[in-house]
Amino acid sequence: MSTTEIILLNIKEIRRRSIKVWQAIPDDKLDWKPDKEAMTCIEMVRHVLESEYYYHLAIKNKGSLKEFDSPFEKNPLISVTSELEFAEPYHQKFLEMISSFSDEYLTDIQIDRSDVGYIRSLGDMLMRIGYHESVHAGQLLQYLRTMKVDRPRVWD
Length: 156
Description:
Elements: H1 3-23, H2 41-61, H3 80-99, H4 103-108, E1 110-113, E2 118-121, H5 122-146
Antiparallel strand pairs: 1-2
């Protein structure tokens, strides 16, 4: 397996497991949050999907965007299913972009996000994107535990 194939496998596996967590959120708990500063369950799902879209554009830009016009803002927060359906074409384009990267490109290209404290190689950036989604999956698992909702088996 090439480095690119491993990164793609990782991102796809993270998304598969995130979807298991997201689909475990009962419809009547989508607006639940542990405190007033936290994101609701559905806001966290949106945050992950919208962030992937942002990161896709940032990679194309080789750094943070000066302006970000999100198509997600125009899409009403209704359900996990509607969020996934809306995000799917963007997710596929993101995966297609990753599949086009050579191993050399992953190490040679730098993504400048010094505005938020780092400049990293493209390969590192792609791993950070997966980590970001994984952290939020863990947060949502804790939300489900706190709500006393059955949690899905993500370690299958």
